[in-house]
Amino acid sequence: MSGISRVNIIFELLKKPSTWSELMYDLRLNPRSLAIHLNYLQTNGIVTKDKKKYALTERGQAICNLEFINEEELEKLAQLKIRFDERKRT
Fold it and tell me: Please, what is the Cα angle at 80 between 74 and 85, to 5 degrees?
C-alpha cells in the first residue's frame, strides 16, 4: 500500500501545492504515514517543501509526464496505476 499512497501524494501535488493538513485530509492518511511518504519523496527528489506547502520538483513533474523515467520506474507506476484503478472501483 505504500506505493499507492506515494502515487496518490504525487498526483495530489500535481493538481496544486498543498499543506500538510490538506494532504492528510484529502488523502485520508494518518500523520505518521504521511510523514514517512513525504520524507521518502523528498529524499528521492520528487517533492520539495517551501514555507508551508509541499510541491513537486521538476523531477516529480517529469515523472507525472513520464519524461526522464527509467523502465523500472515506469513499470512500477504502471502496476500502481492498475491497483489504484481497481481500488477506485470497489
Answer: 125
User: What's the whole-model pTM score?
Assistant: 0.70
Q: Tens place of pLDDT for every residue, the chain, 90 residues?
A: 467 888 889 989 999 999 999 999 999 999 999 999 999 999 999 999 998 999 999 989 887 776 555 667 667 777 777 777 777 666
CB contact set of 53 (below 8 Å; sequence gap of 6+): 17, 18, 19
Domains in the chain: boundaries: 2-89
Fold of 2-89: Arc Repressor Mutant, subunit A (1.10.10)
